[in-house]
Every structure is written in structure tokens, then in C-alpha cells.
Amino acid sequence: MSDMADRARAVVDAHRGDRGALLPVLHGLQAEFGYIDQALLPLVAEELNLSRADVHGVVSFYTDFRGEPAGRTVVKLCRAEACQSVGAERLVAHAEQVLGSKIGQTTADGSVTLEQVFCLGNCALGPAAQVDGRLHGRLDEAALDSIIAEAEAGKA
Ligand code: FES
Fold this sequence. Notes:
Elements: H1 2-15, H2 22-33, H3 41-47, H4 52-61, E1 73-78, H5 81-84, H6 88-99, E2 112-117, E3 129-131, E4 134-136, H7 141-153
Bound molecules: FE2/S2 (inorganic) cluster (FES).
InterPro entries: NADP_DH_HndA-like, NuoE-like, NuoE_N, Thioredoxin-like_sf
GO molecular function: 2 iron, 2 sulfur cluster binding; metal ion binding; oxidoreductase activity
Cofactor: [2Fe-2S] cluster
């Protein structure tokens, strides 16, 4: 934890003095560790002179912040209206079934984290998803399966 605390302090230091430093610090922590460890929140609160409740509130408000390490492959499925109208929910149900884990969870073997997003700016080409930061459109179940398999194959 102390190495983690030192790294976290370095992130805080990089933004200290900024107005509204909390969000940049939280994004910085997520970039540094891949998630935001709850154990670091008191340190962040203390360093930025905020209450723990404030910091906790912001972390839980923004769904972008992860509370635990992500899987090797991160799959974000769009569930906003335009994608819903062309089958996004079918895709979500399929992904949950194939992976054996729910939206917001990582598979037991740590391979894939499944998340939902609300619009990826790819509405005309829905259903859309982002896999490891790459945007994909006009997806069906088979296309999603092969994109995930390909992403995983690259990491084996
Ligand atoms: S609604 Fe899915 S990309 Fe916009």
C-alpha cells in the first residue's frame, strides 16, 4: 500500500493547486492504477482538504471510475436510444450469457470486463460498442463474439 500511496501522492501533486482538482486527480489515479482503490480515498480527501464523503460521492457518481481492476479486454456496449432501437439489448443479453458475467462485472478468469455506455457517437451505425478503446458498429452477436475473441487472442 505504501508504494501505492506514494504513486497516488504523485498524482495528487501533479494537480495540486488546480481549481477543481478532484476530478483530474481521480482520472489520474485511474490512469495510474487502472481503477480507483477505495483505500486511497482518505488520502485524496486529506491531500485536497475535502471531506471523505465528498470524494466518495464523486467517485460513485461518475460511472467512468472503476472500483476494481479491469479485465484484460474491456467491452463497452452502447445502450442509448439509437442503439437500443436496432438491437443493443439483444447484444447485451448475448454478451452476458456468453461471458457468464453481468454488465459492470469482469469474468471470473479476469479476461473480459463488460460495461455499458450511453452513446459512443456512432448512432448511425448501431448497435455500437467499444472494445479496448476501438469503436465498432453494426454489430450482431457473431460480430461481437469474434471481436472479443480477436482482442483476447492478441493478449494470449
Ligand atoms: S446511441 Fe449508441 S452510439 Fe449513439
